[in-house]
Design goal:
With about 170 residues, the chain is an alpha/beta fold. The chain has nine helices and five strands.
């Protein structure tokens, strides 16, 4: 996918939720979500997907007319995730979705990640909270200094004594 423009990646079914959320601060929640569906022509499907996002994140439904820049960090993370899902990705890239969030919101985000995966979207998750990441994953990779040093089923990595000592506080 190197060298392809972002709009082409989205059309091919890849969406990114970047580290730091990157919402359009001056646009409303609803406008941010609509931008996620920019390349779609199926208006009925977009409406269904908006309902799905508002079901995933009822707080966004409550705040649909509010400017995104006035949302809390957790609400902005929900919005960024919802905007990415509006493109109907087959592959969702999540970069540090729990960064800077309160523990209760981290739990909500990971419950949502699990639900999205169950709904059939493939997810590539980059996350420093190794325990939570492995608990929602099928497969895991451990990186050190930019190199993959371990790869295995997520459950095996959770039970690996070396991984527990170095990354899970065990």
């Amino acid at each position: 996918i190197g060298g392809l423009p972002a709009y082409d990646l989205v059309r091919r079914g890849v969406a990114l939720v970047p580290e730091g959320r990157c919402v359009f601060a001056r646009l409303t929640v609803a406008e941010n979500l609509q931008l996620g569906a920019y390349s779609r022509a199926d208006r009925a499907g977009v409406t269904r997907d908006l309902d799905y996002i508002y079901d995933l994140f009822p707080r966004l439904a409550e705040r649909r007319a509010q400017q995104a820049g006035t949302l809390s960090g957790g609400e902005q993370q929900m919005l960024s995730l919802g905007r990415a899902l509006m493109s109907r990705p087959r592959l969702l890239l999540l970069d540090e979705p729990s960064m800077g969030l309160a523990p209760l919101l981290v739990q909500k985000i990971f419950e949502t990640i699990r639900r999205i995966s169950t709904d059939g979207v493939t997810i590539l998750l980059v996350e420093q909270n190794a325990k939570l990441a492995l608990e929602v994953s099928h497969r895991g990779y451990v990186m050190e200094s930019g190199r993959i040093v371990l790869a295995d089923a997520a459950a095996a990595l959770l039970n690996n004594p070396s991984v527990q000592r170095a990354y899970l506080g065990g």
